[in-house]
Specification:
six-stranded mixed β-sheet; 21 strands; Aldehyde Dehydrogenase, Chain A, domain 2; alpha/beta; 483 residues; Aldehyde Dehydrogenase, Chain A, domain 1
Length: 483
């Protein structure tokens, strides 16, 4: 029997009310581990202790907090190969991506360690004589963090690190699909010089533990990354307590390839953006908006590149794309393949389940041709290694298609025309815009977020994280008359 991995409840590692198995999507015979499912009573206990711990943590000196975050980040970076292997084993992304994710997650912590020392307020003179004004930010309190399975370490880290940096307690509910990475990160955090119960890990189903967490009046803020329907439910629950909410949700990102584009570069960007992480990322290039003048040459090279991609076990050397994360996800992906065909799209390659030496959830990268922007495969987030080519006749039409979506996370353009690139940057209605770069891939020290159905609430990452994880206090001081 595999060892039971427990939850971190009010500062103690405890078994739950039930357990789940975690299996490797590259090889279903590989049991990663057995993981406890937290109970409702355990959630309540950890919420109560979090409030006590948060007050103690907020009183820690800045350098003491800085040392904690630095220690977390440095250990993650030092163990990137070990923890990245574990991540790839349970989530399915190629090993290089798994190791890179853990290392980047460590950088989030070291970045916010430095931010501990950069929390500067503002001063002003009042309109009243003899009165001065002090404006500063204070911790919001106890933060619920609900993170997804596709970047189980990085997404959680870019939420946990600023939450701790700005003096808050954290109650973290990770995705049930990837509990191993969550436990590994929680163990690192728990070993640090922090108050008992400041950081908690509650693994459990979203419909039970997750729902109870977002409905709790003991939570001061909720940071969520996931689907639009779940986000709407969280917002509905949170408003009952006027809980502060930050949400990153769906996307339908477009990469526009213009008639003056470097075609080899455009194909490289499209392949990496569409099929990196098996297409399971919110910044994936799922719509390729291509100028008619270069359409045929682009498509020829794109299809050849997709067909040449090496799909296999996530831990195997030379793999470019691993399996999808679960059987449910695979079935949803294959359903979108059937949907695209029924809508009249041509499946030029891929989109099929693959039989491999080990039993897993493998599929080939798929490319749809002859699609229009009103097809469901171009309106809905598929979260799959599938991309659609949309032919356009001009830059103006391309920009219109890029913006014709309910989402608005990332968009990109491939062009050698500076004026056109500048116009696109200014007029693409997305939170992130790229020029001659993939729509995927962002830095940790600058804001990240979208528009429309993609995001709600303050931006994540960089200095702007303070907008969500703190609250502003304005103080008026009268010194009286000098003596």
């Amino acid at each position: 029997m595999s060892e039971l991995h427990k939850n971190l409840i009010a500062g103690e590692w405890l078994a739950g009310e039930s357990e789940i198995e975690n299996r490797n999507p590259s090889d279903l015979s590989d049991l990663v581990g057995v993981y406890a499912q937290a109970s409702a009573d355990q959630l309540e206990a950890t919420l109560d202790q979090a409030r006590v711990a948060q007050a103690e943590w907020a009183a820690y000196g800045l350098e003491r907090k800085q040392a904690v975050l630095n220690a977390i980040g440095n250990e993650m970076m030092a163990r990137a190969e070990e923890l990245g292997t574990l991540l790839s084993r349970e989530e399915g992304k190629p090993l290089a991506e798994g190791k890179g994710e853990v290392y980047r997650a460590g950088q989030f912590f070291t970045y916010y360690a430095a931010e501990c020392l950069r929390q500067l307020g503002e001063n002003a003179d009042s309109v009243r004589d003899g009165v001065e004004i002090d404006v500063r930010r204070e911790p919001i309190g106890t933060v619920a963090i609900i993170s997804p399975w596709n970047f189980p370490t990085a997404t959680a880290s870019w939420k946990i690190a600023p939450a701790l940096c700005y003096g808050n307690a954290v109650v973290w509910k990770p995705a049930n699909v990837t509990p191993a990475s969550a436990v590994a990160l929680a163990e690192i955090i728990d070993r640090q010089d922090i108050p008992k119960g400041l950081f908690s890990l509650v693994v459990g189903a979203g419909r039970t533990i997750g729902q109870r967490l977002v409905e709790s009046p003991k939570i001061d803020a909720i940071s969520f990354t996931g689907s639009v329907p779940v986000g709407r439910g969280i917002a509905t629950a949170a408003i009952q307590n006027f809980t502060k909410v930050q949400m990153e949700m769906g996307s339908k990102n477009a990469l526009a390839v213009m008639d003056d584009a470097d075609i080899d570069l455009a194909v490289t960007l499209a392949l990496g953006g569409a099929f990196g992480s098996t297409g399971q990322k919110c910044t994936a290039s799922s719509r390729l908006v291509v100028h008619s003048a270069v359409h045929d040459s682009f498509v020829e090279k794109l299809v050849a590149g997709a067909q040449a991609m090496k799909v296999g076990h996530a831990l195997e050397a030379g793999i470019q794309m691993g399996p999808v994360v679960s059987e449910q996800q695979l079935n949803e992906n294959l359903a979108y393949v059937d949907l695209g065909k029924s809508e009249g799209a041509e499946l030029a390659c891929g989109g099929q389940r693959l039989e491999m030496p080990t039993e897993g959830f493998y599929m080939s990268p798929g490319v749809f041709l002859n699609t229009s922007n009103d097809m469901r495969i171009n309106r809905e987030e598929m979260f799959a290694p599938l991309t659609s080519v949309i032919k356009v006749g001009s830059y103006e039409e391309a920009l219109s298609v890029v913006n014709d979506t309910n989402f608005g996370l990332t968009s990109g353009i491939v062009t050698q025309n500076l004026a056109r690139a500048t116009h696109f940057r200014r007029n693409a209605r997305t939170g992130v815009v790229t020029v001659n770069l993939p729509t995927a891939g962002t830095d940790y020290h600058v804001p990240f977020g979208g528009r429309g159905d993609s995001s709600y609430g303050p931006r994540e990452q960089g200095k702007t994280a303070a907008e969500f994880y703190t609250t502003v206090k304005t103080a008026y001081i009268s010194a009286g008359k000098p003596v």
